Amino acid sequence: MSAPVEEAVAPTWALGGDVLTTATGTPVDDTDNSLRLGSRGPTLLDDFHLREKIMHFDHERIPERVVHARGTAAHGHFRLTKSLGHVTKAAVLADIGPDVPVFVRFSTVAGSRGSADTARDVRGFAVRFYTDEGNWDLVGNNMPVFFIQDGIKFPDLIHAAKPEPDREIPQAQTAHDTFWDFASLTPETAHMLMWVMSDRAIPRSFRTMEGFGVHTFRLVNSKGASTLVKFHWKPRAGMHSLVWEEAQKLGGIDPDFHRRDLWEAIDAGNFPKWDLGVQLMKDTDDQMFEGIDLLDPTKLVPEELVPVTIVGTLTLDRNPDNFFAETEQVAFCTTHVPPGVDFTDDPLLQARNFSYLDTQLTRLGGPNFDQLPINRPRAAVNTTQRDGYGQAAVHPGRAAYTPNSIGGGCPYTAGESAWVAVPRSMDGIRARARAESFGDHFSQATMFWESMSPPEREHIVGAFSFELSKCEQPEIRERVLGILANIDSVLVSEVAAHLGLKAPKGRPSGDVVPSPALSMQPLGGGSIAGRLVGVLVEAGADVAGIKRLRAALTAQGANLCVIAPHVGTVNALSGSLTADRAAFSTQSVEYDALVVAGGTGASTLAEQPYTALNLSEAYRHHKVVAAWGDAQVALANAGIDSDASGVVRANKADKAFVESFVTALSWHRHWSR
Ligand code: HDD
């Protein structure tokens, strides 16, 4: 018999204790002075502590991910609320029972590991479920489609998007020639370009973005029957974005804006949640649905055609203990699937299934990356794989092969509980060919445009104009206009006008059915959980009003940050209050709303250029701005129309003021101004 799995691991590793030791546990007497011959003599080669310390430091960095290098992650759990047992045997989706632990990593794509969080980019949304049947990695994005239809184009796409190779400029952005050169010559990018130029590419927070599995996958039940599925994550905090100017400023003011937001929300007990939804479709011979080729990752299935059924909830409730060990070393692979989840022939997914396994080999230095603590499955592991760099298991016994008699025949293959590929007959010519049904690159791009609200359209026009104006070669701009002309006549003419170019004749609107679910424009006020409200104060501030506002906000999971001329204690109208931030080290872009507090110092505060500058900026970014008492004059000083939507003012910070403020905040942004 082979050894029980528990025995097949390294001896207990006692990390911790009070004294400093070497990597192998020898206590160290001095870590400030190297071993020298005399106090001023040469350093001795037998200083094993010095050599080990420096050797380890020299190797502290590992290659960053070639894409999605910049990211952050959290632990949590997934609770299934509606069984999909009729379509899958995967227990994580079929058995309503104990929660399944998860680890989720969010990321940008193009930037290096130290780049800014708020760059215009796709966001990675990678979820690992540690199921009893093995790890399941649903490695998705915050957009439901992709730039290219075949994974063989991925290196081209990424080489074009990354900093240009001769000058290594620009960092973390697509606003440069090589990206738009590639995009303009690759019309299949059209639909994804619309998403990346939309507000989806500058989320307010990871907590306020949707996630998508992108590809069509298969679910397989215990009878072997297959159903096609697309996975969706719906944020409980609603869908919200930044505005472009904010995103750019935050890149300098707080490059860790998204990372900090997630960490602080979890730290404060405001656990972010997403509902898992599925769109289920019949697995037909051709995997087509209403004219949409389900194997084409540049297409989505409108929710109006196939509604998203919510089946469970993901909650993130624990920050990692160590960024490197967990967030950096997590090795997601699209091939990590439990029995009951299978792939389709989507050519992008097929290439991914090779790429992720391959990439981890170099990034994590050898074939045993699955043994790193964050990658270890919860399910028992029993392979015949042995040795290699970084082998952490101590495998006992003689039989590391099958079939064997010496090990009692173990491990033997699993019967009904095994992952089994859906049997399908295949026939076709072996060729490098693309299906004709992948041919329409524009209809869904037009559908996306026609589903947007007026402010969202304005932002898309602004984004294309910004990016293309940064291209140095005029012919690249012209070629992109050619793509936009195939999408919509208004879009192309507005972008052309910003570029000082003549617009080509564009597609007239009205020939596609819009999908309202694609718009992020809220239909009503939503949750304010996780919002940050900045309150500007001066000495003599009305501390009772601030307290009332804070109580109302914290009751709904939002936070209040006191901004004063200096950090520390500020004398208030009655008593004192503690400033969280100093005015000289923070700016409006870091807050969801800005309030000027009333009190005896309010008129001084209202006169400060800093107050006017930040209020007008918050107003321009469509945020809630408010003031009470003598501070109301600050709104006028900043040129703000005090009757505009999202402007809240009152003589006192009473119950009515606080209620109006919370209602205004629940809309996130006031686009009508
Ligand atoms: Fe990818 C990382 C998502 C296409 C090759 N990808 C990576 C991550 C996410 C995605 C979220 C970061 C995982 C983490 O947090 O560690 N990738 C996608 C999505 C795609 C996609 C949603 C299209 C639908 N990717 C894609 C293709 C290829 C790759 C077509 C190659 C053929 N992706 C990789 C990679 C990465 C990666 C090189 C880099 C680091 C890593 O895998 O672990 O293998």
Describe the structure.
The protein is an alpha+beta fold. It is 26% helix and 17% strand. The protein has helices at 48-58, 91-94, 154-161, 177-184, 190-196, 244-253, 257-267, 323-328, 347-363, 443-450, 454-469, 474-485, 489-499, 543-555, 602-607, 609-620, 633-637, 655-665; strands at residues 71-80, 100-108, 123-131, 134-141, 211-212, 217-220, 226-235, 273-282, 288-289, 292-293, 309-318, 341-342, 532-536, 559-564, 568-571, 576-579, 581-582, 593-596, 624-628, 647-650. β15 and β16 form a beta hairpin. The termini are far apart. Bound molecules: CIS-heme D hydroxychlorin gamma-spirolactone (HDD). CIS-heme D hydroxychlorin gamma-spirolactone (HDD) binds next to β2, β3, β4 and α9.
Topology overview:
Elements: H1 48-58, E1 71-80, H2 91-94, E2 100-108, E3 123-131, E4 134-141, H3 154-161, H4 177-184, H5 190-196, E5 211-212, E6 217-220, E7 226-235, H6 244-253, H7 257-267, E8 273-282, E9 288-289, E10 292-293, E11 309-318, H8 323-328, E12 341-342, H9 347-363, H10 443-450, H11 454-469, H12 474-485, H13 489-499, E13 532-536, H14 543-555, E14 559-564, E15 568-571, E16 576-579, E17 581-582, E18 593-596, H15 602-607, H16 609-620, E19 624-628, H17 633-637, E20 647-650, H18 655-665
Parallel strand pairs: 13-14, 13-18, 14-17, 18-19, 19-20
Antiparallel strand pairs: 1-2, 1-11, 2-3, 3-4, 5-7, 6-7, 6-12, 7-8, 8-11, 9-10, 15-16
Helix pairs in contact: 3-4, 4-12, 5-10, 11-13, 12-13, 14-18
The chain binds CIS-heme D hydroxychlorin gamma-spirolactone.
